UniProtKB/TrEMBL annotation, chains A, B:
It comes from the Bacteria. Keywords: Oxidoreductase. This is NADP-dependent oxidoreductase. GO terms for molecular function: oxidoreductase activity, acting on the CH-CH group of donors, NAD or NADP as acceptor. It holds the Pfam family ADH_zinc_N. InterPro entries: ADH-like_C (IPR013149), ADH_N_2 (IPR041694), ER (IPR020843), GroES-like_sf (IPR011032), MDR_fam (IPR045010), NAD(P)-bd_dom_sf (IPR036291). Residues 16-331 form the Enoyl reductase (ER) domain. Signal peptide: none annotated. The keyword Oxidoreductase applies. SMART domains: PKS_ER. Gene3D superfamilies: Medium-chain alcohol dehydrogenases, catalytic domain, NAD(P)-binding Rossmann-like Domain.
Length: 334, 334
């Protein structure tokens, strides 16, 4: 008796903002697990902006998704059957085999979650790739110091909320940027010293001059566009920009414009460093050693925006680019 | 009996490309040197792109030039009279008191040239600020290694010609970019492995793909614009960009466009570092220890474009932005 796997496939490559019709929900029969394989049922699927890049044909740092094959992404699930000595029924595992409700995979494709009573979906967000991205950007790349001023764009997103909180733990002054009054209020509860609602701030330059009169030492950049230009104007001498994301460009079909004021990089001897978390996993243990106890003690918080059911995954993904999430965007399976 | 100093003053702030009428030649009486002061006659004036920034009112890394006061810049001269114990008549000195044929200054504003039979004007170019800029960019910032591929824009300029030669001494593969067939030929005599004439290369992307199929590890950027976009597309993983100049923008009145493909910085985890030589003068001795013997042995070469007479200084300066120089642009005084 074989089990059915329901999975979201990419039907065609999106042009600009993805549309629901770019995706299709298919049911396929799963094979029986062979020796060394494990059958997993997913409970949580990760919804991440970087996935947009893999939906295009262009070569990026990971190969493009194939059409008419299940999409991939972070997922948390439970072992239903195991023919691998490292996993037993009931184990909680993370994998990159998301966008589907169940799968059969080799044990080597799975990671058992650390022992903790924290909600398992944290390992897709604040304790997973986005949290590790924030930690690596602040500590490994920018080497943020107490007393410095940090600006974070998309501060209410999965990476941003962790960047804000980790920076406050270092003793930095934190300015966030986000797109709604609710998100502004939420970021203040996380400890942000100031928050810009960019949709209601016609003069970003003047606002940064007011909020960071001594200049910005570190800019954690997730967005691009007008905020990057304004930040360049207000960076401090020898400031550092962690270039983590340019979400404003991801659906732009190549019409994105770049910052016109790169001369600031020379004037202020700014460092800009592109960040991909894949360069930094060797420090994941150090990150978890700080972050798990901090979550257990309530000293770090995580917000989730949860969408219900596999069929909602495309719409949740599209919502990322419409600012529909606060904190980590997740899909919960029934 | 007081001596007259002829000096170029800024009459009004240029809009876009400077015009000869933005400048005026004035004669002023020099005071007699007081105790601690020195009278110097300049022989060589330095003509540098960075001076354009100081002609605008906008705050930059150095204050704007004052109107109706002599402009400033590198100069090499000879001591005519000295009331400072550190200088005697006939000493060759460098100063930042260019754009004039003579001046009286405190001894502390002068630097005696190192003892060498090399032409003194080298200390305005290959052995001065531009040469030090190239050396600091390659060694202190990019840490260029043997076997790596370096791309240099404005490769036939004062900084570029030194970057090309210093990189060949390291054992790098060097690709230069310049704007005429003569300059292409000259750069090949300096050892460049390949040279792009950007004016005759409609598809910079394809040309870089052909010349650097394994990618560019280090880009020494003096220009900006289309070459920066093309270079970003062909940078290698973890490539480094030394942002030294953006000469294409200096006269742009703010209409400059930035690179539309900054996403490459994330994909390839590129480092971009703004460079000003002022951060690196503590290493000037190390640079001269390498470069003076290399020039004396004929292992380094310098090209000069020389304009005659103080009155030619504004036109020489404008010529920098029209590609009129190969190597260092200088004005020789009679």
């Amino acid at each position: 008796m074989s089990q059915l796997s329901h999975q979201i496939q990419l039907l065609r490559r999106p042009s600009g903002l993805p549309a629901p019709d770019d995706f299709t929900l298919q049911a396929v029969a799963l094979p029986e697990p062979q020796v060394g394989e494990v059958l997993v049922a997913n409970q949580w699927l990760s919804v991440d902006p970087y996935m947009r890049g893999r939906m295009s044909e262009a070569k990026s740092y990971v190969p493009p998704f194939a059409l008419n094959a299940p999409l991939e992404g972070g997922a948390i699930g439970t072992v239903l059957a195991s023919r691998h000595p490292g996993f037993k029924v009931g184990d909680r595992v993370s994998s990159m085999l998301g966008w589907r409700d169940s799968f059969v995979a080799k044990g080597e494709q799975l990671t058992r979650l650390p022992a903790t009573d924290l909600p398992p979906q944290l390992f897709l967000g604040a304790l997973g790739m986005p949290g590790m991205t924030a930690w690596a950007g602040l500590h490994q790349v920018a080497k943020l110091q107490a007393g410095e001023t940090l600006l974070v764009s998309a501060a209410s997103g999965a990476v941003g909320t962790m960047a804000v909180q980790l920076a406050k733990r270092v003793g930095a002054k934190v300015i966030g940027s986000t797109g709604s009054a609710d998100k502004v209020a939420y970021l203040k509860t996380l400890g942000a010293d100031a928050v810009i609602n960019y949709r209601e701030t016609p003069d970003l330059d003047a606002e940064l001059a007011r909020l960071a009169p001594e200049g910005i030492q570190v800019y954690f950049e997730n967005v691009g566009g007008a905020m990057l230009e304004a930040a360049l104007n207000h960076m401090a001498l020898h400031g550092r920009i962690v270039l983590c994301g340019l979400i404003e460009q991801y659906n732009s079909n190549g019409e994105a414009s770049g910052p016109r004021n790169l001369a600031q990089v020379i004037r202020k001897r700014i460092l800009i460093q592109g960040l991909l978390v894949s360069d930094h996993w060797q420090h994941y243990g150090a990150f978890l050693a700080e972050a798990i106890p901090a979550f257990e003690a309530g000293a770090l918080q995580s917000e989730e925006t949860v969408s219900q059911g596999l069929a909602s995954m495309p719409q949740a993904f599209i919502g990322l680019f419409q600012g529909r999430n606060t904190g980590k965007m997740l899909v919960k399976l029934d």
